[in-house]
Amino acid sequence: MAMADVLERLGYQLDFPEKQTCCGQPAFNSGYRDEARAVARHFLDAFEGDAPIVIPSGSCASMVAHHFAELFAQEPETLARVHALEKRVWEFSAFLTEVARVEDVGARFEDIVTFHDGCHSLREMGIREGPRRLLSHVKGLELRELEPAEECCGFGGTFAVKFGELSGAMARSKVDAIVRTGAHTVVSLDPSCLMQIRGALSRQGSNIRTMHLAEVLASR
Amino acid sequence: MTTEMHRHIHETLGDARLQDAVLTATGRLKASRIAAVAPDVLPDYQELRTQAHALKKHAIENLDAYLEQFERNLEAHGGKAVYCKDAAEVADFILGLARERGARLIVKSKSMLTEEIDLNERLEKHGLESVETDLGEYILQLAHERPYHLVAPALHKTRYDVAEIFSARLGVPHEIVIEKQTATARAVLREKFLAADIGISGANFLVADSGAVVLVENEGNARLSTSAPKIHIAIAGIEKIIPRAQDLATFLKLLARSATGQWLSVYTSFLSGPRRAGEIDGPEEFYVVLVDNGRTRLLADPGRRQSLHCIRCGACLNTCPVYRRIGGYSFPWVYSGPIGSVLTPQFMGTAHAPGLPFASSLCGACAEVCPVKIDLPKLLLELRSDVKEADKSEGRGRWERLAFRLFAWLMRHPRLYEMAGKMAPMFAPSGKGGWIRSVPGLMNFPPIKAWTDERDLPPPPAKSFRETWRRR
Q1: Does any domain span residue B462?
Q2: Neighbours of B210 (CB within 10 A)
Q3: Where are the domains of chain A?
Q4: Is the minimum CB–CB distance between A196 and chain B shorter than 8 Å?
Q5: Mean pLDDT across B283-305
Q6: B369, B333, B330, B371: which is closest to B349 by C-alpha?
Q7: How far is residue B333's CA from residue B272's CA, in Å, rounded to a whole number?
Q8: Closest-CA distance of chain A to residue B347, Å
Q9: H or E stretch including B55?
Q10: Is residue B380 in a domain?
């Protein structure tokens, strides 16, 4: 809902196609390509049209923008639909900085914040500076960089449960890095990273909050 | 499912000293690599990667022609090319040659291919002594362990471990000063170099247009192994071919920087044939053993054959958050880290370790640092699909497949999807709306248990997004 608030404040008219469900990434990343293809087909149907599609997750956006094409490599007609869809898909922060071309959305959020780069946002979508620029314009917000900034939180979809112990160890390293910054809030573009990080923070009894970038930008 | 790999991971994660050794050593290599490819010291780094990828792709796609060219040029210099299909053929060739020449002692420089084919064991079984001369490999040979890492094989061994190994195996006093340990190894190995009948090396590159074997190293042991004994045998996978000597300008700029952060390694040797008239050193006989061992099978698939681009720099290991925590021995075969997860199922078959391609969060850090731009996450995803296809045809993993079928079905039925969302709070423990430590009734359900053993679960939202959206 925070994403919708920010976009409406910028003057965009929003539609939420009720047919939508999932991009199919869980099945795709787990090796079930037929199942992923079926869900991807549903996604294509749910998002017919030509309006830009704004997604509050770099990972889901990347699935649609980069991996749908792999799923339909053998189906020229569907592939053409996929290529048309790819051009309409935007991760939330990238939509703000590249389409809406705003950096100051008029938000106020008084806190010390650190930013976690989701791997798919960072490496598959090439999103790095945009969210930082957006945060730098939020009044009252102090951004502190993670060290190391670009290391995975260890979520990885079904990896988190197939190799739970390892995934947990990766999450704890991430939590340690977050604690070292002295920030009170961790911000990311990806709800799944935030679930992993918050789950590990909560297990340690930490009161550091996790928030999606949209929630910070919607604050005033 | 708990596998052998899970057990190794559990042990490694629980070993504080090992965690510290591996994280520190890989961290150092990682930081050095980053510094060595920084824009101010190597402005054309990305162009070099693109070039290296294109060169490897071209070489692999024209492997037959370049192998023939390599062989012609090698033999023009008096060397000899020997083609071997597999491990047994390599061992047979070396054993046959050793028998003819009456050879007993072999000195060896570092070669992952010889690890791949268990060469030392095969030779020792027939009474030959084969001594590793790379310091790390030597330590591991004494400890009867396999390489932990592509480039730094004994990366997991601290100086204290080495002191134990040396005193137990060599009978020398317990000594923890690294320089003194090195001097001990040097003294032992020097005698071996002088007495050896055969020197075996690997090859970093086989240069088609000059018939040369290029070796990259830091210790000088490869130089000695290939020049002191009367016979030098270089053993290389057929994918090591590059078209031209000038291509080394690209590869050598990338290899050492990616591996250790050095701009160049201490020694780079170009070997093209045995000693010629008038030369003061070099072997009398020079063989290059070109090994397939499964590589031609990978060549058959245009999408997968990029796995053969690897120049074994180890950058993907050093940067991988998984490798850095679970270390080399959690991987089921000689190749570890991201490239190991890609090579092992393709060389050994997916059944060898079906969990392996799944042991990755798909963070993509490996692809970002690969100097020849192998798309490792894409290959892992394809191998995951291979594993599930094999499971399907052989009737394994029924429950998981059923779960994903159900998932796909539910995701095509938005109303049922919404209803399922509404039902979720019924399963969640009621209460303060805080994060959930364990789910009563589902505590032993594997995916739930795997999550809640390590982390808390978010409480399901009281109201769905759809409901809120409709009401505004």
Answers
A1: yes
A2: 20
A3: 2-96, 104-218
A4: yes
A5: 95
A6: B333
A7: 32
A8: 19
A9: helix B45-61
A10: no
B388 and A30 within 8 Å at the Cβ level: the answer is yes
Structural domain span for residue B450: 398-471
Give a yes or no: residue B343 inside a domain. no
On whether residue B374 sits in a domain, the answer given is: no
| pLDDT digits 0-9 by tens, B52-76 | 999 999 999 999 999 999 999 999 9
Q: How far apart are CA B457 and CA B440, in angstroms?
A: 13
- CA B417 to each of CA A59, A75, B413: distance values in angstroms, whole numbers, following the listed order: 21, 28, 6
Full-model pTM = 0.96
Give Cα B345 distance to the centre of its chain.
13
For residue B17, with 0-12 CB atoms within 10 Å meaning exposed, 13-18 middle and 19 or more buried, which class applies? exposed
Tens of pLDDT, residue by residue over A147-172, are: 998 999 999 999 999 999 999 999 99
Domain boundary among B243, B265, B296: B296
Cβ distance B360 to B322 under 8 Å? yes
Q: Cβ of A169 and B13 within 8 Å?
A: yes
The answer to whether the CB atoms of A29 and B401 lie below 8 A apart is no
What distance in Å separates the CA atoms of residue B62 and residue A14, rounded to the nearest whole number?
A: 53
d(CA B120, CA B363): 37
CA of A168: which chain B residue's CA is closest?
Answer: B454
Q: Is B166 helix (H, G, I), strand (E, B) or coil?
A: helix
- Contact by Cβ (8 Å): B159, B131: no
Tokens of B265: 């390694």
Residue range A104-218, CATH number = 3.40.50.11810
- Cα-atom radius of gyration of chain A, to the nearest Å? 18
Provide the token pair at B186.
């040097």
Q: For residue B302, what are its two tokens?
A: 């245009």
How many alpha carbons lie under 13 Å from residue B295 in its C-beta half-sphere? 26
